[in-house]
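TODO from last week: model NADH-quinone oxidoreductase subunit A.
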Amino acid sequence: MLTPLQTYFPIAVALLVAVGLAAVMLALANVLGPRRPSEVKSTPFECGSLPVSPARERFSVKFYVVALLFIVFDIEAIFLYPWAVLLLPSDGYPGLGWAGYISMGIFVATLVAGLVYVWKKGVLDWAD
């Protein structure tokens, strides 16, 4: 029987190797890489075009609202995956049964009500 420390040891070794390799590559690039700064190298590169306006622009609040809505529905998807796996009985697990089905139905209904609300408020309308 493996102890918890023995179980996680390979993961810790892989993590240390990855961090060590990244540190070595960054150090080698810093030591061996050429340093010839110039004005051309210092200008921002935007698809081969010269920048025509400053990078600091104000965005409409709608972008942030849509980003928040995306995060909410992305989190919903994260909650739906384990629920879908655990809903039915399998491999000795009894399953969630009707209680799990009803609770997830309430959860999804709440999110759908929120979606209908923001839709009616015009948050998703980009016409103006």
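Done. The radius of gyration is 26 Å.
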